[in-house]
Structures are given as structure tokens and as C-alpha cells.
Specification:
alpha+beta; six-stranded antiparallel beta sheet; 2 helices; 6 strands; about 30% helix; globular
Length: about 140
Amino acid sequence: MSHLDELDEFEAELELQLKREYTAVFPLFRYCVLTQDATYLCNKLDLKVVPQASYPFFHAQMEDVWVWDKNRPTRIIPRAEVYTSGDVTVEELRGEGDERVSPPKRSRSASAISAAPRMTTRFERRRRVLKVEGRG
């Protein structure tokens, strides 16, 4: 096996671990924030639009945050701020008074991995989506 094959295998394993972690933590958060650079899950969000002469500028402040990044040693952080002029999509996964949903039990079977889309679909019926377009 060449070094490139080993690197590809390592990257694929990191991506699979990240997807499994996302599936496990998804029900714990209230918002999903998508920017052109990253995906965030958070429980508190303050999104401000700062008008500019030629395009809008967005400032998102988040608390209790999980960051989609396979290269971070820890993905859960207390606070994050994002400044962007690109598109921002905010999905409200549950309402203010809704209780957190317990994460699914871990299993190494193929059925547990295929259960992730069903779990997401359950939340999609309840979510409200706000898409704010930047200069693209």
C-alpha cells in the first residue's frame, strides 16, 4: 500500500468518525448554522446583518457550539463568532421550550449507520429554515 493510499484511508476514517459524531450530537442542539466555510450546531444564536454599500455582511454569535471539522482535536466549544459576506442558512431544529432529545445508543452495526437519515428526517418536519443570501 502506498503512502497516498494510506493517507486516503486515514482521511476516509476521519470523515466516517465525524459523521458518526454528528449523528450522535445532532439531537442535542437547537440550531444548525451553515456557512460557505463550515457547519455549526449550537443552542444559542444571535445573527446580525450589517449593511454594507455593495453587499450584506453577517455576524453570527453562537454559544454551546459543535463545529464540523475533522481536523479539530475538540469539536465542542463554548462560543464561536463567524463573520461572512456569503450565504448563511439557519435551521431551527427545535423550539424554545422543546426538550433535548437523547442521543441514539452507539452501535457498530450497519443498521445504526443507516438510521441517521431517518433521525434527520424526523427533525426536518419540525424545523424552520432561514436562508440569508450574501454576495454569493
